[in-house]
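Incident log, structure service

09:12 report received: a user says their structure output differs between two submissions of the same chain.
09:20 pulled the input from the user's history:
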Amino acid sequence: MLKIYKLGDEILHKKASMVPDFDQTLRDLVEAMFETMHQGDGIGLAAPQVGVLKRVFISNVTGDEPRVFINPEILRTSIEQSTYEEGCLSIPEIYADILRPSAVTIQAWNERGKPFRFDAEGLLARVILHENDHLNGILFIDRVNAKKRKRLVKLYDRKVKNGCA
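09:34 re-ran on a clean worker, output below:
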């Protein structure tokens, strides 16, 4: 299991770089990320969250197969948007309603270097957008207004201080 970096760790606000090689090291990283995500009861995880500044994220949403996205590019998002309460393994026990597009088209590669294009909607689209944000150094709390973000950070700090997060 890999260490999950938490709010306050500088790496979470850095932009990840492209993956140049689709080798065994990459496949081992993806496998370890799935193990880590499942241990944390998550449905998505990005490489920067485990200390690797590479453009890799995974998802495993109920009703869908486990997915790997390497060097992803968002091609299109829907005009329709929806609000949903999001959380994050890097900010445990903190949740906020986040407005995001309801559907997305993404282009990426799998861990074997095979390119694909994929359309997602609903929760899977949200997970893709949330995890893709991580690759650009953006946390879900960065998508709320400054006043609410300050409250969420304060709440998180209290939970950490009390050993809850």
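09:41 both user submissions now match this output. Likely a transient worker issue. Closing.
09:42 reviewer note: The helical segments are 24-39, 122-135, 146-161. The chain has one domain: 10-161.
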